[in-house]
């Protein structure tokens, strides 16, 4: 029996290659995801372990840095006397205090160095030289000297002998002479794309600890027990061994690779899911072709089980071969992706290939999916009575009631899960519930596609029916709803996912545009990209902009986001040099009192006032981050408005802010003045402001949403994979159609259908199937996008917008795919030998 | 019946609808070669009903396929009306089949997606022309299909399906209708209906029909029966009766051993 199976397979190579390809692609992505994750983890932990070489213990603040973020940085600092205590512990050879944090440096081009990766400032000490290798020059010996990393030299365009300006959020600008350049061990310029500046300890503390003589971390060498050190310095500090600290640091870095791994795994699973349809269809074809052979086997005494076994054996052979190929290619892809991630996001980290044992799962998935998908056609094949199969192959259309009811039920279950997942009813499992729901809903909708195919195919076909061969193609497409549906479903899933994401992205864009439109009465905006530090600019710049002849009004905003308290509760504070003008530009209105605040005045929106239980004229204690405590009087209550909600203090209080500089300016250009010209003038004024730039409203919206476009493009590229599988599925189905209808085609050719007409007939069938899949996918995708938008409406995603340009693109692409998929089957139909086709049985 | 007289091309006063001259057709090569037609020359008169008979492998189907432009010939010429079809390319042959030839097959070969009426109008639809409605109405009335026009083939009996196929073959008023075992899949009653219609279409409409059959009673409806054996015409009967056909067949079955398989 196996022999007969293998021989049969050899005679159907092309079909098997197509099916295998689907399995290969799916397995490849699953394997690549696992290899990527494992490889990055290994590579990163290797590097981090290097960094901790020779470090025996690490002391940090016991305060969780993440939880402490809102507090003053001093909460996580280790005072200098603790370092002395550590040095005194028995067995401690050396102990070095480390100060590090983000700084801003201005590059050769006048803009901030490292737009995407941070610039890290730290204190250059003896410990630094173990892991860092001086390539040129020396370390800093005076407070106005700095040693920079090789990546800094590349990014900033500055090198030894040059002067660099740097500052931090708490320290003003200062100039430093670059006295040295260092690289990282392993001849690397950077760990993960970041740039580094090494200062003297005193200067690092001025920049990063607000001048306090304190450290973030203490690195200890020697054989002192961590317990002894902990006992000596008390419970405010955490003591780890070098190894523990290394692992913890590696985990943070590997998280990036993990996320990418999950994304790839997700797409791999989508590919596998889509492959299921293709495999089911292919085996249906193979079984149809073998129907007589199988019936003959049954007639001469093969049991049903043997027939099923024969088909499953074929599936297993394909599954094994394709999965092994997929695994091999997946390892290659995973390695390639690791290189890509390393060079683009990890500063050329040396990649150590790691093929984890878990990647064997990809093998199991590939084989399992293939065999499981083949079961349905196999069982169906074995159910054909021998005598029936020996006669002309007739496939009476089966009723669609059962499958439709099942589809409705499954879709409903999926929908409920999606709803629950999006409405926070599942707690931590929300995202899992949502994704599972989407998956289940896809299965349900797939079951519904046969019943949907009837009206939709008729409708789509009506457009194509202008020629007779087109009409025949339409009729053929509607002939076997199940097959048309399952073929189109593969395409539907891919299109639904991209359309869903595109819908969410366009809704975000629309929301942003509307926000800008409705709430912003300005022509130009001065602001910077949000980084770890909030971008600001000099207050004098604001005055210069106001002085421009064509500027009619300027709204401005200062902010204090950490460490301020109103009535004992932590909250952000806002300020404007000219609150009445700013309110006008931000579409804010005063409900009570006056926005022209006295020095001890306070303005607040209605909701916040109600929340704090304050009214006009009340006096409220306000504490600034610098520790100043003043009683302020509520002198204005503002109507709730998106951009003006919160506590506003008078300009006189700005000096107490951590960063007493404006964050944003909104410029109104005088009527009739040239906005572009004003933008150029403002641009000139901002030449010395590295953190911010001026944009017009349209660019502003574009800037706010550009990240989303990148996301959408990545998703589209990855889903192209699923689309390739779907195309293979369409080709398979068409080949099956041509095979099954050989006699019909022969007749049509015999009574005068030209080859061109025959080709057109198949092509129309193909295009209809693809369009059906695309239309369905677009509908499902819009539904998906709408659901998510509704769920996020509360969070501010207020507008729903359809990505019309993309929808049209997808429809055009579907037609193109249909034409492409039809090429081979149509050629086959056209080349058909009329005589053989008529004699074909 | 003696076989002494070698068959000669039939020269009649009427115009010839199909003419074959010195046809040769062989399949395969070397030792496996089977010669299906050996120097066959035959004419089919316009407005006549001719049956081609012969044992399995005699070459009767090959002859019909060559005459209808479905198969190529190795040597010799075929003319449909005034058109020589040997040497025509696929496109010209396709057009010729569409415009000048009608087909009736043993398996009916109706398109399952189309209604009976659409099947009848199929050749005109493919050509992108409009069929003559009066003519179509007349065929439909003759075949008694008026109340079956909106049915799909699966809703029709075998006899009804073959009648639809007959209507389709005649719909474009072709030069000649080739019928390949048209009653092979039908019961006696339906066979009779189909044969009587073919007869009537010759008598009433002047249609030319060439029918391949191995059923003597079917052949008896024809004006003339041409017998093939081993790729050659061995007998040519005019105004045959079923008994005469049976006698002839019995005659050469005794003399001619069964030939090898030909297509």
Question: Can you describe what's shown?
Answer:
The complex is a heterodimer of chains A (841) and B (263). Chain A is of the alpha+beta class. In chain A, helix 14 packs antiparallel against helix 15 and helix 23 (755-792) packs antiparallel against helix 24 (804-831). Chain A contains 25 helices and 25 strands. In chain A, strand 21 (619-623) and strand 22 (629-638) form a beta hairpin. Chain A folds into four domains: 1-54 and 259-395, no CATH class; 63-235, no CATH class; 450-519 and 698-840, no CATH class; 530-690, no CATH class. Chain B has helices at 60-67, 90-100, 116-120, 122-127, 133-142, 158-171, 188-205, 216-219, 242-255, and strands at 16-27, 34-45, 49-53, 75-80, 83-84, 101-104, 176-180, 209-212, 224-229, 232-238. In chain B, a hairpin with a 2-residue loop joins strand 9 (224-229) and strand 10 (232-238). Chain B is an alpha/beta fold and 263 residues long. In chain B, the strands form two sheets. In chain B, strands 6-7-8-3-9-10 form a six-stranded mixed β-sheet, with helices on both faces. In chain B, helix 6 (158-171) packs parallel to helix 7. Chain B is built from nine helices and ten strands. The model of chain B is unreliable at 1-13 and 257-263 (pLDDT under 50).
């Amino acid at each position: 029996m196996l022999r007969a199976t293998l021989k049969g397979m050899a005679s159907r190579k092309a079909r098997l290659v197509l099916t295998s390809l689907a399995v290969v692609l799916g397995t490849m992505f699953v394997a690549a995801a696992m290899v990527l994750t494992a490889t990055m983890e290994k590579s990163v932990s290797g590097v981090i372990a290097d960094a901790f070489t020779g470090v025996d213990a690490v002391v940090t603040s016991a305060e969780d840095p993440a939880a402490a973020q809102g507090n003053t940085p001093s909460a996580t600092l280790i005072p200098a006397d603790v370092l002395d205590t550590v040095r005194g512990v028995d067995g401690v050879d050396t102990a070095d205090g480390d100060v590090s944090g983000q700084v801003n440096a201005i590059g050769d081009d006048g803009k901030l160095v490292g737009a995407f990766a941070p610039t890290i400032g730290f204190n250059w000490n003896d410990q630094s030289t173990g892991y860092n290798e001086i390539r040129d020059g020396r370390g800093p010996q005076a407070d106005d000297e700095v040693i920079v990393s090789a990546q800094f030299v590349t990014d900033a365009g500055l090198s030894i002998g040059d002067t660099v300006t740097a500052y931090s959020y708490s320290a003003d600008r200062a100039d430093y002479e670059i006295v040295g350049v260092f690289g990282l061990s392993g001849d690397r310029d950077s760990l993960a794309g970041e740039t580094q500046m090494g200062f003297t300890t005193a200067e690092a503390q001025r920049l990063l600890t607000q001048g306090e003589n304190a450290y973030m971390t203490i690195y200890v060498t020697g054989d002192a027990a961590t317990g002894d050190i902990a006992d000596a310095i008390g419970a405010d500090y955490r003591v780890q061994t070098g190894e523990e600290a290394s692992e913890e640091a590696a985990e943070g870095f590997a998280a990036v690779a993990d996320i990418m791994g999950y994304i790839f795994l997700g797409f791999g699973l989508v590919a596998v899911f889509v492959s299921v349809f293709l495999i089911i269809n292919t085996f249906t074809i193979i079984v149809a072709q073998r129907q007589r052979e199988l019936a003959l086997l049954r007639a001469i005494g093969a049991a049903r089980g043997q027939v099923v076994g024969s088909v499953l054996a074929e599936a297993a052979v394909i599954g094994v071969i394709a999965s092994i190929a997929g695994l091999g290619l997946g390892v290659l892809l995973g390695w390639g992706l690791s290189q890509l991630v390393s060079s683009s996001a990890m500063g050329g980290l040396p990649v150590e290939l790691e093929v984890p044992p878990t990647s064997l799962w990809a093998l199991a998935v590939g084989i399992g999916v293939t065999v499981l998908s083949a079961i349905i056609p196999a069982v169906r094949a074995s159910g054909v009575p021998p005598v029936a199969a020996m006669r002309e192959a007739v496939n009476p259309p089966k009723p669609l009631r059962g499958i439709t009811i099942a589809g409705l039920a499954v879709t409903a279950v999926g929908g409920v899960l999606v709803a629950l997942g999006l409405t926070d009813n599942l707690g931590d499992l929300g995202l899992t519930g949502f994704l599972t729901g989407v998956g289940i809903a896809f299965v349900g909708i797939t079951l519904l596609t046969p019943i949907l195919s009837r009206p939709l195919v008729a409708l789509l076909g009506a457009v194509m029916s202008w020629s007779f061969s087109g009409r025949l193609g339409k009729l053929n497409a509607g002939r076997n709803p199940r097959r048309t549906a399952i073929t189109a479903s593969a395409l539907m899933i891919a299109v639904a996912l991209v359309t869903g994401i595109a819908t969410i992205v366009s809704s975000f864009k629309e929301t942003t545009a509307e926000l800008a439109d409705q709430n912003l009465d300005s022509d130009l905006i001065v602001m910077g990209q949000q980084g770890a530090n909030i971008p600001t600019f000099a207050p004098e710049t604001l005055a210069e902009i106001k002085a421009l002849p064509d500027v009619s009004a300027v709204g401005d905003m200062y902010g204090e986001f950490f460490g301020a308290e109103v009535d004992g509760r932590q909250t952000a504070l806002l300020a404007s040099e000219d609150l009445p003008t700013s309110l006008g530009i931000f579409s804010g209105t005063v409900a009570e009192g006056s926005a022209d605040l006295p020095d001890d005045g306070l303005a607040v929106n209605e909701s916040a006032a109600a929340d704090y239980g304050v009214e006009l004229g009340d006096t409220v204690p306000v504490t600034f981050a610098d520790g100043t405590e003043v009683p302020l009087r509520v002198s204005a209550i503002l109507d709730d408005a998106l951009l003006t909600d919160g506590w506003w203090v008078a300009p006189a209080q700005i000096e107490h802010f951590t960063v007493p500089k404006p964050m944003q300016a909104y410029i109104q250009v005088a009527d009739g003045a040239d906005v572009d010209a004003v933008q150029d003038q403002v641009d000139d004024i901002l030449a010395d402001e590295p953190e911010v730039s001026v944009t017009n409203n349209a660019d502003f919206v574009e800037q706010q949403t550009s990240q989303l476009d990148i996301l959408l493009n990545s998703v589209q590229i990855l889903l192209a994979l699923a689309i390739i599988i779907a195309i293979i599925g369409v080709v398979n189905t068409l080949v099956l159609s041509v095979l099954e209808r050989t006699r019909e085609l022969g007749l049509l050719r015999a009574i005068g259908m030209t080859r061109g007409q025959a080709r057109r007939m198949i092509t129309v069938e193909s295009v209809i199937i693809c369009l059906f899949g695309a239309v369905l996918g677009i509908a499902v995708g819009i539904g998906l996008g709408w659901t998510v938008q509704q769920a996020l409406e509360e969070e501010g995603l207020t507008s729903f917008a359809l990505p019309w340009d993309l929808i049209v693109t997808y429809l055009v692409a579907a037609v193109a795919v249909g034409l492409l998929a039809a090429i081979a089957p149509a050629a086959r139909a056209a080349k058909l030998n009329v005589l053989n086709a008529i004699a074909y049985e | 019946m003696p076989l002494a007289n070698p068959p000669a091309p039939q020269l009649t006063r009427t115009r010839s609808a199909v003419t074959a001259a010195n046809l040769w057709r062989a399949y395969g090569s070397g030792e496996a070669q089977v010669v299906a037609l050996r120097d066959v020359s035959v004419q089919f008169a316009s407005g006549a009903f001719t049956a081609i008979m012969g044992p399995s492998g005699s070459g009767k189907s090959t002859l019909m396929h060559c005459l209808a432009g479905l198969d190529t010939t190795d040597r010799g010429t075929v003319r449909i009306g005034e058109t020589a079809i040997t040497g025509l390319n696929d496109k010209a042959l396709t057009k010729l089949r569409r415009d000048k030839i009608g087909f009736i097959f043993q398996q009916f070969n109706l398109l399952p997606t189309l209604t009976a009426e659409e099947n009848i109008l199929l050749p005109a639809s493919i050509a992108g022309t409009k069929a003559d409605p009066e003519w179509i109405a007349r065929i439909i009335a003759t075949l008694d299909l008026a109340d079956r026009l909106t049915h799909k083939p699966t809703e029709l009996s075998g006899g009804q399906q073959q009648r639809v196929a007959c209507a389709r073959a005649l719909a474009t008023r072709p030069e000649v209708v080739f019928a390949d075992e048209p009653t092979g899949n039908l019961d006696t009653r339906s066979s009779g209906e189909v044969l009587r219609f073919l007869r009537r279409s010759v008598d009433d409409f002047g249609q030319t029909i060439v029918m391949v059959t191995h059923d003597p009673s079917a052949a008896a409806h024809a004006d003339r029966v041409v017998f093939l054996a081993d790729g050659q015409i061995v007998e040519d009967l005019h105004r045959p009766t079923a008994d005469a056909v049976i006698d002839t067949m019995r005659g050469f079955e005794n003399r001619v051993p069964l030939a090898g398989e030909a297509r």
